[in-house]
Amino acid sequence: MRLLHTSDWHLGRSFHRVGLLDAQAAYLDHLVATVRAHEVDAVLVAGDVYDRAVPPLAAVELFDRALHRLAEENVPTVMISGNHDSARRLGVGAGLIERAGIHLRTDPAGCATPVVLSDAHGDVALYGLPYLEPALVRDELGAAKARHEDVLAAAMDKVRADLATRPGGTRSVVLAHAFVAGGEPSDSERDITVGGVAAVPAGVFAGVDYVALGHLHGAQTVNERVRYSGSPLAYSFSEVNHRKTMWLIDLGPGGEIAAERLDCPVPRPLARLRGPLEDLLDDPALARHEAAWVEATLTDPVRPEDPMARLCARFPHTVSLVFDPDRGPEGEHVSYAQRLKGRDDQQIAEDFVAHVRGGSGPDGRERAVLQGAFDDVRVDETVREVAR
Known about the structure:
By secondary structure, the chain is α/β, with parallel strands linked by helices. It has helices at residues 21-37, 57-72, 87-90, 94-97, 134-141, 148-164, 277-282, 307-314, 336-340, 345-356, 364-387, and strands spanning 2-6, 14-15, 18-19, 42-46, 77-80, 102-105, 115-119, 122-129, 171-177, 210-214, 220-223, 226-228, 245-251, 257-263, 270-275, 293-298, 318-323. Helix content is 31%, strand content 22%. The strands form four sheets. It has a six-stranded mixed sheet with strand order 6-5-4-1-13-14.
């Protein structure tokens, strides 16, 4: 059975205030053409269909057109909700849409109810695990703790229990939206850390033939049977070196895996440039970046006059401007933004406690209180967003 694994469309998202709907529409055109050209048997979409819980109307219309076109190809599509989606909104009409071969899996209660497809070698059971917010699904799934690893383990126990009731030789595929240990994140994923831990071990998914993951935006292989497709478009400059692809997976009669990466259209390349403004404007070697989306980091010791306009005269698609003056060893001149760069909320809060105490940071109990407060705020924001 031939599967096309994709994820993280983030319909409605922009890139540094530049709208991406046209690029997203071009990607979906490419997706449908790929389904046809490679004779795909099923499409897997591993979450984050939309960029936010209440997407703009243009993004909803784009999604609607994509569903119609996939249905017209008579190729089943299995799709789960991600942490950016509103599971309840995405799942509206799922029962009706299923009649057209579009299988939306947004309810954690349905984790162990697979979409069953068949080929010449027997059945393939495809299980959709939507993004599982630990604090919200722990009781429903019977997880031991409100942690990502525990709720995913509980969901996978249900999957394996269902699989055990099926005819011998039934192959299995799981779609999940999670941060699995060994994956490489970028700057454009929303943090899903709980209790200071974001990643779950790949061993949670033991016992199935293929795991189609979403959440991380770089295509990558955790192991032969566990893969991220990544996002089809770049959504931050941290993805400058990403090759945007989809996985074409051939699932053999005994569960064997053959995988091929298929490139996605690139609307515009990315470039990160660094140096004094005059060097960026004069260096002939940078001519190849003149059509790219550019992030320019200026190292001039004194902020140049009108830098954005001057950069745009050569690089018309400059969308991000950063100042990082070369001032020798770091010291009192280091900016507040530079001091915070790469530090998460927990680390910043602990630094503040140490500052007001004159050097003594929080003890273990206090760190747990801080982490609990941040977890509560994140869960509350998730609940509020879904309820809108």
